[in-house]
Amino acid sequence: MNKFLKFIALGTAASLMALSLAACTSGDQNSSTGSTGPNDSGSASLDLVSEGTLIMGTNAEFPPFEYQENGEVVGVDAALMGAIAEKLGLQLEIKDMAFESLSEALSGGTIDIIAAGFTIDPKREETMDFTNTYFTAKQTILVRSDSGFASKADLEDKKIGGQTGTTGLSCAEELTAKENIKGYNNGSLAVDDLLNGNLDAVIIDNNPANEYKNQHGDELTLITDQFEEEEYAMAVKKGNKSLLDAVNKALDEIKADGTFDEIVAQYIK
Ligand code: ARG
User: For a pocket test of ligand 1, which of 65, 74, 163, 230 has the largest count of ligand atoms closer than 8 A to its C-beta?
Assistant: First the structure.
């Protein structure tokens, strides 16, 4: 079938910059990236890092979308990609890495697809192609319950933490100066520093925020509905249209046959 252009990856520095500048998503997200054409081609015609295998890159520190359990990556994204790979007749392989390394792994050709509760963002769209969306999320602010903070306005010039490279940290930039913002390898470490008193707030997606609230109970309070909605999608290497179309088609199929809803219900109560 159609061969496509191999795009020369933009400079790594540029793509990392793009990630760190990712907007605290404001409106206009172009979420539905055109639907699939007919694609009955078997997996042999897909442009993959390794034939017969779909290599998913993720950062498994983001429950309930991806986390480690008994040495295995599980969660909504792992299960969705498992179902999608099955539809495509491919083996799924999951590579767990730092969140901020995902974009480089994709353009550098060590993974086929990012599935990581990954928000569609105009900056990211410059270096990768997003599938159709599959989940709507919102950034949530976590504070200590004794802090008295109740809205984002209370966090002006306060110390805010979050996971490096995420949209949550872009939201933090709206509220406080860069020197007051601290990036962590994962959300859990940021929450530890919040409980230690080293931070005034953590900004993270609503579902992991709920998980942290469940873990720490009354010590933590969630401040919700402060930011725009975000849309999650998977991302493939820029120009990899055959894989993009195939994944969109499989995503449609698992939505139509009930698999998608089952997976979400399994991990999000
Ligand atoms: N939705 C946020 C973003 O795209 C956070 C994603 C973090 N995902 C993860 N697997 N750690 O920036």
Answer: 163
Using CA atoms in the order 102, 250, 268, 66, what is the torsion angle rounded to 10 degrees? Answer: -20
Residue type, 231: E
Q: What is the pLDDT of residue 199?
A: 98
10 burial level (CB within 10 Å; 0-12, 13-18, 19+): middle
Q: Assess if CATH 3.40.190.10 describes domain 41-134+233-267.
A: yes
Band the pLDDT of 15: cuts 50, 70, 90.
very low
What pTM, to 2 d.p., does this model score?
A: 0.86
Dihedral, CA atoms, 81, 228, 202, 185, nearest 10 degrees? 40
Axis crossing angle, helix 76-87 with helix 259-267, rounded to the nearest 10: 160
CA of 166, closest atom in ligand 1: 12
How many residues make up the chain in this entry?
269
For the Cβ of 167 lying below 6 angstroms from any atom of ligand 1, the answer is: yes
Lowest-pLDDT choice from 21-30, 124-133, 159-168, 185-194 = 21-30
Looking at every residue in the chain, the average pLDDT score rounds to: 89
66 lines ligand 1 (CB under 6 A): yes
For 138-229, CATH number out of 3.40.190.10, 3.20.20.80, 3.20.20.110, 3.40.50.1110 equals 3.40.190.10
Closest ligand 1 atom, CA of 59?
10
Q: Which residue carries 């730092």 as its tokens?
A: 98
